[in-house]
Amino acid sequence: MNKITCICLGVSNMEKSIKFYRDGLGYKTDCKENNPPVCFFNTPGTKFELFPLEQLAKDIDEHNPPKRNGFSGITLAYNVEQKEDVDSVIELVRNAGGRIVKEPQDTFWGGYHAYFSDLDGYYLEVAWGPNFKFDKNGLLKF
Q: What single string gives the DSSP state of each residue in 59-100?
């Protein structure tokens, strides 16, 4: 059970969200349609999935689907190998129509990071750390 193989986000508009992640941020996918029932992106070690929000809520509980309210207490993180990559990613986000929540800045732990939200308000962090090490597949090692 010590493995997360897929991260799924419920989105309000599949077409716009696919364009944001695929065209704006460069995520790789095999999705050919603009509005598929689900869309998987290929990220090292984990699949990243977009799923229509209302359908996802009904999939969880068709009789009493959960409501989405504000900050869920979860963020996703994208760790980069070079400090300047934080700035580059934030420019991609800005150009793709994402909202910059926290501009790139130094952290209390010696790193450099920023926060942004996607088109549905999910929070993502892009971070560089002086002690971050990556394997040959680009996965963060501790």
A: HH-SSSPPPP-S--S--EEEE-SSHHHHHHHHHHHHHHT-EE
